[in-house]
């Protein structure tokens, strides 16, 4: 199988392009996706190649164009709605939660909303309090939605196609700090979109994470190897539904778990996963489950404060050392 | 659940209260309480262990139907399948 | 002020005991009721409790050592209870409020970090903020729960149970001495897994202890015996109704009703609930209400000892405390608990020493009646036989009833036949109205 090295944004773009080519019902819609080439350059060149009927620029009205996406999906199309960042999705919450997520239920199964919404998320670019959110947990809370978090380049390339094949709404969260990074992309996806994947095998502690934090967990695992702590890293990939089978299998193997989550600690997915581990793997635990999350402050603007608020590799390493003695 | 699985669960439940008992020690058609020297507290604990492992709560009025190992086996088999 | 912790006497006839293991070390803070050591006596492995709060200042005897009853094993610096305990509680409550209001400002965070003993290994404020909730929860738990049980991680508990290992014999290296997987593995690798209460020599010791107590009892106590067949039809019906829709862990056995009825009867006939003090008994056997001279000493509470047969032979007689204050359900739970702990060797010293009367239930084993031997310094023992169906004539009709025979053995130095008979009748009456127990 051939692989190439692409940047994360190039991988996303390749996925969108494949979708446009394979299925004429697919179109991309959002702010600045067409003529500007996408606020983060993800759709650069697509407008020129596929025209204004497939790549559609919208006014600044999230509620409006997400609603249009719902309508188009109901009408038989396969829209990819790009909400510039998850922060702006607040304005479209009603469309996402009360229309996209709920119409299938409310219509007794008669209506499907095969909508894909892509959103940039996460902190690290000094975009400050209103533009640095990690709200995977908000959406993972909603029945009727699926929530994906491609942390690797290969997932960035292939998850979109998998999402479009789903007859129900799927949200894809793309961490801004990954956009410029390079990684391997192959011809196939690593796994079905609902599966979590063990990215590194280990036996002493399970590091469970997703999205922008995966790279930090992997780096921590390498550092821990040097002090003889064998960390297993699990990339959750799909946040709703959670692949509890894979994550519990890991915890049952290592008996210790640390969850790394870039969202704020309270009400985070880390809390949900911790509860699941408690409920279903309690008798396997040799130490309490630990969570590493973002400090509960609006994300600061100055770089050193921003970094101080976010989970860091050193914290993961320290937590793993502590958990080995149940502290 | 097949017979072997259920047998295993019953033995495990017995061993919760009488750890020294092995399946070979038991006459399957004799009163289990006598075979394994279980008093009423032991019997309750044995039922609790079975409830934990099979989900089945055996009511007092059914006690007479589960006196022997084999009787317990068929009682559970009926309800687990 | 320093207090001596001594090898306790666990029975009138016990002269020495073996210190097997310390669960605390010099400098440890302890609370009333904490288990501080594992002893081996003729009755098997016992968890030794400490009866005062304070700090262990000196350990004077190293395990494993056999010493006489009364030997000082360690010293305790008593806490000034007026200032220490409430302070702890206050801090716990403050912490809990903090957590609830989740007022996690940066100033709040660093303040709390300074007052708590967090285990973080790096000091940048980010880690303090992020892990603060975890640390606070840990500290609250540590403060609020000075438990007296062996601490072990869930997986250790499960494995130990599966392998029938006694956790009390394993050293823990985790927080608060908790046993972790590594500790369990080290223990198993060490080949030292004698489950203390199962060795042949312990059983022999137990036999000797029983022999000594029973011999002494028969030599010194003038027993008399009186029995009454009690109609327990009403009690059985009550049990059937009660247990009907309950899962096995909520069902009540007849013994729980019998114990409650006994406790009520002892409130009316306290002459059977106490101790006969003679010059030869050490005063430690009487908790506090010691006065000079021989004769009957009223027990201050109703603690009923229950004879529990061990599967491999031998018996233990742990007490359920304050039975008159417990509901039937609570008595049932206590019965379950002490039966379990008798078998795993985890009874507490207080449970083995302070029964004020004993019950032996031989009905299960098929005996019609049992005339027990009184456990000195108690003055009575009540035995119950098996359930028998009888036909009786009542209101000109023949009806079937369930009966068990209750036999009271009593010390004739302090109890007369008439009191004993009235007591049994009162007991019988209580069992006719089980819903009022």
Keywords:
heterotrimer; A: 327 residues; alpha/beta; Rossmann fold; 2 domains; seven-stranded mixed beta sheet; five-stranded mixed beta sheet; 12 helices; 14 strands; C: 437 residues; alpha+beta; OB fold (Dihydrolipoamide Acetyltransferase, E2P); Chloramphenicol Acetyltransferase; 20 strands; 35% helix; globular
Helix and strand topology:
The complex is a heterotrimer of chains A (327), B (81) and C (437).
Chain A: E1 3-7, H1 8-22, E2 26-30, H2 46-50, E3 55-57, H3 62-74, E4 78-85, H4 93-100, H5 103-106, E5 116-121, H6 136-140, E6 146-148, H7 153-164, E7 170-175, E8 182-186, E9 197-200, E10 205-209, H8 214-226, E11 231-235, E12 238-240, H9 244-254, E13 257-264, H10 269-281, E14 290-294, H11 303-309, H12 313-323
Parallel strand pairs in A: 2-3, 2-4, 4-5, 5-7, 6-7, 10-11, 10-13, 13-14
Antiparallel strand pairs in A: 1-8, 6-12, 9-11
Helix pairs in contact in A: 1-7, 3-4, 8-12, 9-10
Chain B: H1 3-17, H2 32-35, H3 40-54, H4 69-80
Helix pairs in contact in B: 1-3, 1-4
Chain C: E1 2-6, E2 16-22, E3 29-30, E4 35-41, E5 44-49, E6 54-59, E7 65-68, E8 72-78, H1 84-101, H2 106-115, H3 125-144, H4 154-162, H5 181-189, H6 200-220, E9 223-231, H7 233-244, H8 254-268, E10 274-277, E11 295-298, E12 304-306, E13 308-309, E14 315-316, E15 319-320, H9 328-344, E16 347-348, H10 349-353, E17 357-361, E18 380-384, E19 388-394, E20 397-411, H11 417-432
Helix pairs in contact in C: 1-3, 2-3, 8-9, 8-11
